[in-house]
Inverse folding.
């Protein structure tokens, strides 16, 4: 450190996190993007055909209409999955502190799981797991 | 953790257990469910009320996250009463319209649990959990009439806007935690303001205020209120307009009492503007309404403006006025929307004001309940609304907010017009008003009880006022 003069250190490493550098960067990036987009749109050859206008879906050829109705049970099952998936997150966090929480923690997580199990039976008895059935049980 | 905590959450356990039992009864005992479920709901709400009224747990529970002082117990009793009244008003209403399943009653109890958590939270996490439980339950309750497009539209509107407001609130809590390093509400808001944390503190508080302003429908955030109140079934509207608003306002009162003087100096001008806007816009817009539920919705917006005005005086002893008015407001709005529920026709609700023509002569008692509640909302003696408004304006003027009180008094004078217009339709004209189905002895009893309480509190308010000032003084220490 001694061999380098103080003025040189300040000139070589003026790292002062400020907004100015970020603004310059932002202007440069947006400007460059605008130029590239404009040039490729202006200079590029535009020939439309059916192959080009087809939506790209990971290399798989799309078939049928996009205006299809999803079956409602799909959303219901997705919701059930979310609810019971969150249960796993709670059980994992309990398992990490298994020894510290002791028997009280064990009882509490058991109660939690029992309530969720009852709710699974609730969903079952209410007919929520029956796919596509129109005769809903009441 | 196993010793003193259980007494604190006795009302909570009672409501949660009631809700779970109702769901079980609905799924596993389908034969007798329709008889058991209302009884279970009624019993668990009554248990919650009794245990919060008479059992003193003697100290905050769950690592100090849940307040158990007089303040939260007082509000727990109010919410239990609101839930009981809603159960009574919705009993016949829900059965006649075919949504009296286990979902309705169970979710109603969970919403009540959310309210108690919101009002009793001394920790941001509990507050957030309670608010989310309350909001999620209300989305379901508003959509209770599954085949009614208006009900579904109302629920969707409330859901979309409510979740956006919930996002603001969560971010605000996160910013407050980042700045103060405390999740404890009173410790966080009570910390002194320095040059370092001023920006973060104010940002966090204003984000939290967006969420709270949505829930209690202060004026820039009020646009959902009339649509949702109109679309929801009338007993649910009664529950929504009283319970949800009173719970969130109780939390706001706690925040204001806890906040440091320096923080309060920034919040007060904001509240001044919000209160003035809410009172003016709420009352002036209500003048043009031709539907009773929309009119009552705008009136409930304006009522929140009056309470917010008195909240400004909270550092000068105005808190008891706020609590008193919240209790009275719960009674008045419960009665008014409950009257809409018990006066509604067999197939649809009586929504247009013209449908109420001459109702005062055909159904004198139920129309009388509506009339007294409107009188009280207008702040006319000898009802509790008069005393409530009197203490509110008294508190505001004592604290030196004379200009705001003047705005409020002018707005209240304007409001008398539309309340009296409804009275005119009820009593001054005669007309064909259709058949009103019977509501059973319980519904009539609840109506009578609200009527009696409103008149009683209007004539002898001092016992409740004294009790409330004791409760509030214990909170601020």
């Amino acid at each position: 450190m001694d061999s380098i003069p103080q003025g040189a250190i300040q000139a070589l490493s003026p790292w002062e996190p400020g907004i100015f550098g970020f603004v310059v960067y932002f202007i440069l990036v947006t400007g460059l993007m605008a130029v590239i987009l404009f040039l490729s749109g202006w200079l590029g050859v535009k020939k439309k055909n059916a192959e080009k206008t087809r939506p790209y879906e990971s290399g798989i050829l799309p078939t049928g209409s996009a205006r299809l109705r999803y079956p409602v049970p799909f959303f219901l099952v997705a919701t059930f999955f979310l609810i019971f998936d969150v249960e796993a997150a709670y059980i994992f966090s309990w398992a990490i502190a298994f020894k510290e929480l002791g028997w009280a923690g064990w009882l509490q997580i058991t109660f939690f799981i029992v309530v969720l199990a009852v709710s699974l039976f609730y969903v079952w008895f209410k007919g929520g797991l029956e796919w596509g059935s129109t005769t809903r049980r009441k | 953790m196993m010793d003193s905590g259980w007494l604190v959450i006795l009302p909570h356990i009672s409501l949660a257990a009631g809700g779970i039992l109702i769901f079980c009864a609905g799924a596993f005992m389908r034969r007798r469910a329709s008889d058991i479920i209302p009884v279970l709901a009624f019993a668990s709400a009554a248990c919650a009320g009794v245990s919060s009224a008479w059992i003193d747990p003697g100290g905050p529970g769950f690592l100090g996250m849940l307040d158990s002082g007089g303040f939260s117990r007082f509000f727990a009793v109010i919410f239990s009463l609101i839930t009981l009244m809603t159960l009574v008003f919705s009993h016949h209403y829900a059965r006649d319209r075919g949504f009296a399943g286990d979902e309705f009653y169970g979710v109603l109890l969970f919403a009540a649990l959310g309210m108690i958590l919101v009002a009793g939270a001394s920790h941001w996490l509990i507050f957030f959990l309670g608010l989310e439980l309350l909001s999620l339950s209300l989305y379901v309750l508003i959509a209770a009439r599954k085949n009614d497009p208006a009900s579904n539209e109302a629920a969707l509107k409330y859901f979309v806007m409510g979740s956006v407001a919930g996002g603001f609130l969560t971010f605000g809590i996160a910013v407050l935690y980042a700045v103060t390093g405390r999740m404890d509400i009173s410790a966080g808001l009570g910390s002194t303001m320095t040059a370092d944390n001023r920006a973060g503190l104010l940002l966090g508080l204003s984000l939290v205020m967006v969420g709270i302003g949505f829930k209690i429908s202060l004026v820039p955030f009020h646009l959902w209120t009339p649509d949702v109140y109109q679309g929801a079934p009338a007993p649910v509207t009664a529950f929504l307009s009283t319970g949800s608003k009173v719970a969130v306002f109780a939390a706001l009162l706690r925040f204001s009492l806890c906040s440091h003087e320096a923080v309060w100096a920034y919040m007060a001008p904001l509240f001044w503007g919000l209160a003035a806007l809410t009172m003016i816009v709420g009352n002036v817009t209500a003048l043009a309404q031709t539907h009773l539920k929309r009119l009552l919705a705008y009136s409930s917006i304006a009522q929140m403006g009056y309470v917010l005005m008195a909240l400004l005086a909270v550092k000068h002893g105005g808190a008891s006025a706020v609590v008193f008015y919240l209790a009275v407001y719960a009674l008045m709005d419960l009665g008014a929307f409950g009257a809409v529920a018990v006066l509604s026709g067999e197939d649809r609700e009586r929504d247009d004001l013209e449908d109420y023509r001459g109702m005062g002569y055909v159904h004198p008692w139920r129309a009388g309940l509506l009339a007294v509640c409107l009188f009280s909302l207008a702040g006319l003696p000898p009802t509790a609304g008069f005393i409530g408004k009197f203490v509110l304006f008294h508190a505001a003027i004592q604290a030196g907010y004379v200009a705001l009180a003047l705005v409020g008094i002018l707005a209240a004078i304007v409001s008398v017009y539309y309340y009296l217009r409804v009275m005119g339709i009820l009593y001054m004209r005669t007309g064909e008003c259709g058949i009103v189905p019977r509501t059973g002895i319980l519904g009539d009893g609840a109506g009578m009880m609200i009527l009696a309480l409103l008149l009683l509190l209007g004539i002898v308010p001092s016992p409740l006022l004294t009790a409330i000032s004791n409760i509030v003084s214990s909170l601020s220490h």
